[in-house]
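User: Second chain of the day. Same drill as before.
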Amino acid sequence: DALCLAIHRPAEVAGLLDEVLFSDPLQKGAFRALAAATDLHAAVSGAPPEVADLLHRLAVADCDPELDPGETFVRLVHPAALSALHELEREVRDATRSGDTTREREAAATAGAVRSEIELLIGAGESPEAASAALASAGRLVAWILQRQENGP
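Assistant: Same format as last time:
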């Protein structure tokens, strides 16, 4: 859905999507091609064949007009945030095993905060307020994931 929106309604997802949200290499490649190009034609022509094929299929596919960009973003962030949380929880266990209590405390505190943010994603459909909170949480989680990638654990 996110790539469909990026192709058919790019202005609505501009600033929301990031390649860190795509775990599938083909989808990540499609997003990279779209992000690097000025238009769909340039993205397709500059992409590897398998990515170009995916972009072409998405371009001719019907994109549900009812798709909500915010909901789509929240659904895309959820698995990426869970994956990053699992990495962080491994760091807590490693710090515990190695006796690094400072790192253990820091990582455990961050893990708790990330869990709280993820919980906000889960309740997104319950009310307009919950949807707004989920969208804000998704934005914070993406910022955290990007910072983590840039700075390391």
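The mean pLDDT is 93.

User: Great, on to the next one.
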